[in-house]
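Lab manual, section 2.4: Encoding a predicted structure.

Procedure: take the sequence of the chain (161 residues), apply the prediction step described in section 2.3, and record the output as C-alpha coordinates. A sample record is shown.
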Amino acid sequence: MNTQFALTAAALALFTLGCNSNGPDTAVVHEQRIDPQEQDDHDRSNDDHGHTDAKKETPEVVLDHGKRWIANKETTEGIANMSALIAEYDDSNGDPKALKARVEEEFALIFERCTMTGESHDQLHNYLMPIHQEMNEIDFSEAAERDELIAYLATYSNYFE
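Recorded output:
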Protein backbone atom coordinates (compact mmCIF):
# COMPACT_ATOMS: atom_id res chain seq x y z
CA MET A 1 0.00 0.00 0.00
CA ASN A 2 2.83 2.42 0.86
CA THR A 3 4.57 1.64 -2.43
CA GLN A 4 1.39 2.32 -4.40
CA PHE A 5 0.85 5.59 -2.54
CA ALA A 6 4.48 6.60 -3.10
CA LEU A 7 4.27 5.86 -6.83
CA THR A 8 1.02 7.80 -7.18
CA ALA A 9 2.46 10.72 -5.23
CA ALA A 10 5.63 10.66 -7.33
CA ALA A 11 3.64 10.61 -10.57
CA LEU A 12 1.52 13.52 -9.36
CA ALA A 13 4.59 15.51 -8.31
CA LEU A 14 6.35 14.86 -11.59
CA PHE A 15 3.20 15.66 -13.52
CA THR A 16 2.59 18.98 -11.82
CA LEU A 17 6.13 20.17 -11.19
CA GLY A 18 8.72 18.19 -13.09
CA CYS A 19 7.48 18.66 -16.59
CA ASN A 20 5.93 22.12 -16.59
CA SER A 21 7.22 24.17 -19.48
CA ASN A 22 4.24 26.44 -20.02
CA GLY A 23 5.61 29.85 -20.76
CA PRO A 24 3.94 33.01 -21.95
CA ASP A 25 3.94 31.89 -25.59
CA THR A 26 2.04 28.66 -24.97
CA ALA A 27 -0.41 30.40 -22.67
CA VAL A 28 -1.31 32.79 -25.47
CA VAL A 29 -1.78 29.91 -27.93
CA HIS A 30 -4.16 28.15 -25.57
CA GLU A 31 -5.98 31.36 -24.73
CA GLN A 32 -6.68 32.00 -28.40
CA ARG A 33 -8.33 28.58 -28.76
CA ILE A 34 -10.88 29.18 -26.00
CA ASP A 35 -14.32 30.23 -27.13
CA PRO A 36 -15.54 33.30 -25.13
CA GLN A 37 -18.64 31.37 -23.97
CA GLU A 38 -16.43 28.48 -22.81
CA GLN A 39 -14.25 30.99 -20.92
CA ASP A 40 -17.34 32.35 -19.14
CA ASP A 41 -18.41 28.79 -18.24
CA HIS A 42 -14.85 28.08 -17.07
CA ASP A 43 -14.80 31.20 -14.90
CA ARG A 44 -18.17 30.33 -13.34
CA SER A 45 -16.98 26.80 -12.52
CA ASN A 46 -14.05 28.07 -10.41
CA ASP A 47 -14.36 27.51 -6.69
CA ASP A 48 -13.13 29.89 -4.01
CA HIS A 49 -9.55 28.75 -4.60
CA GLY A 50 -9.53 29.25 -8.35
CA HIS A 51 -9.69 25.50 -9.10
CA THR A 52 -12.07 23.93 -11.57
CA ASP A 53 -13.63 20.53 -11.92
CA ALA A 54 -10.82 18.30 -13.22
CA LYS A 55 -12.99 16.83 -16.00
CA LYS A 56 -13.79 20.31 -17.39
CA GLU A 57 -10.19 21.39 -17.00
CA THR A 58 -8.75 18.66 -19.23
CA PRO A 59 -7.88 20.22 -22.58
CA GLU A 60 -8.39 18.38 -25.84
CA VAL A 61 -5.40 16.98 -27.70
CA VAL A 62 -5.00 18.63 -31.09
CA LEU A 63 -2.80 17.72 -34.03
CA ASP A 64 0.03 19.81 -35.42
CA HIS A 65 -1.77 21.28 -38.44
CA GLY A 66 -3.21 17.84 -39.25
CA LYS A 67 0.03 15.99 -38.50
CA ARG A 68 1.00 13.92 -35.50
CA TRP A 69 3.41 15.39 -32.96
CA ILE A 70 6.90 13.99 -32.62
CA ALA A 71 7.27 12.32 -29.22
CA ASN A 72 10.44 11.20 -27.53
CA LYS A 73 11.25 7.50 -27.69
CA GLU A 74 10.87 7.00 -23.94
CA THR A 75 7.30 8.33 -23.95
CA THR A 76 6.27 6.09 -26.83
CA GLU A 77 7.88 3.09 -25.11
CA GLY A 78 6.16 3.98 -21.83
CA ILE A 79 2.73 4.04 -23.46
CA ALA A 80 3.47 0.72 -25.19
CA ASN A 81 4.69 -0.79 -21.90
CA MET A 82 1.54 0.31 -20.08
CA SER A 83 -0.62 -1.24 -22.82
CA ALA A 84 1.36 -4.49 -22.76
CA LEU A 85 1.17 -4.79 -18.98
CA ILE A 86 -2.60 -4.46 -19.05
CA ALA A 87 -3.11 -6.66 -22.13
CA GLU A 88 -0.97 -9.47 -20.69
CA TYR A 89 -2.80 -9.48 -17.35
CA ASP A 90 -4.46 -12.81 -16.56
CA ASP A 91 -7.69 -12.59 -14.56
CA SER A 92 -7.37 -16.16 -13.32
CA ASN A 93 -4.11 -15.74 -11.45
CA GLY A 94 -3.17 -12.04 -11.67
CA ASP A 95 -2.92 -9.59 -8.81
CA PRO A 96 -4.80 -6.38 -9.73
CA LYS A 97 -2.97 -4.38 -7.06
CA ALA A 98 0.39 -5.44 -8.45
CA LEU A 99 -0.78 -4.60 -11.97
CA LYS A 100 -1.88 -1.16 -10.86
CA ALA A 101 1.46 -0.55 -9.15
CA ARG A 102 3.37 -1.59 -12.30
CA VAL A 103 1.20 0.58 -14.57
CA GLU A 104 1.60 3.55 -12.20
CA GLU A 105 5.35 3.01 -12.14
CA GLU A 106 5.50 2.99 -15.94
CA PHE A 107 3.32 6.12 -16.03
CA ALA A 108 5.66 7.89 -13.60
CA LEU A 109 8.65 6.96 -15.79
CA ILE A 110 7.06 8.78 -18.72
CA PHE A 111 7.25 12.01 -16.73
CA GLU A 112 10.67 11.25 -15.31
CA ARG A 113 12.09 10.70 -18.78
CA CYS A 114 10.26 13.61 -20.39
CA THR A 115 12.50 15.57 -22.76
CA MET A 116 9.79 17.10 -24.94
CA THR A 117 9.33 20.86 -25.11
CA GLY A 118 7.02 23.38 -26.68
CA GLU A 119 3.61 22.62 -28.10
CA SER A 120 4.29 18.89 -28.57
CA HIS A 121 5.04 18.72 -24.84
CA ASP A 122 1.84 20.58 -24.01
CA GLN A 123 -0.19 18.26 -26.23
CA LEU A 124 1.40 15.24 -24.57
CA HIS A 125 0.21 16.57 -21.22
CA ASN A 126 -3.27 17.05 -22.70
CA TYR A 127 -3.16 13.38 -23.72
CA LEU A 128 -1.80 12.13 -20.39
CA MET A 129 -4.12 14.15 -18.12
CA PRO A 130 -7.11 11.76 -18.47
CA ILE A 131 -4.85 8.81 -17.60
CA HIS A 132 -3.55 10.66 -14.57
CA GLN A 133 -7.09 11.49 -13.45
CA GLU A 134 -8.25 7.91 -13.95
CA MET A 135 -5.30 6.26 -12.22
CA ASN A 136 -6.65 6.82 -8.69
CA GLU A 137 -10.08 5.43 -9.49
CA ILE A 138 -9.46 2.58 -11.90
CA ASP A 139 -10.19 -0.91 -10.62
CA PHE A 140 -7.72 -3.20 -12.36
CA SER A 141 -9.73 -6.24 -11.24
CA GLU A 142 -12.48 -5.14 -13.65
CA ALA A 143 -11.84 -6.24 -17.25
CA ALA A 144 -14.08 -3.46 -18.62
CA GLU A 145 -12.00 -0.78 -16.88
CA ARG A 146 -8.75 -2.32 -18.11
CA ASP A 147 -10.18 -2.51 -21.64
CA GLU A 148 -11.19 1.15 -21.48
CA LEU A 149 -7.67 2.18 -20.50
CA ILE A 150 -6.13 -0.01 -23.23
CA ALA A 151 -8.50 1.59 -25.76
CA TYR A 152 -7.44 5.06 -24.66
CA LEU A 153 -3.74 4.15 -24.77
CA ALA A 154 -4.29 2.88 -28.32
CA THR A 155 -5.26 6.42 -29.36
CA TYR A 156 -1.72 7.62 -28.60
CA SER A 157 -0.65 6.91 -32.18
CA ASN A 158 -3.46 9.13 -33.45
CA TYR A 159 -1.63 12.14 -32.01
CA PHE A 160 2.04 11.18 -31.62
CA GLU A 161 4.70 9.38 -33.59
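Check your result against the sample. Confidence is low (pLDDT under 50) at residues 1-18, 20-55.
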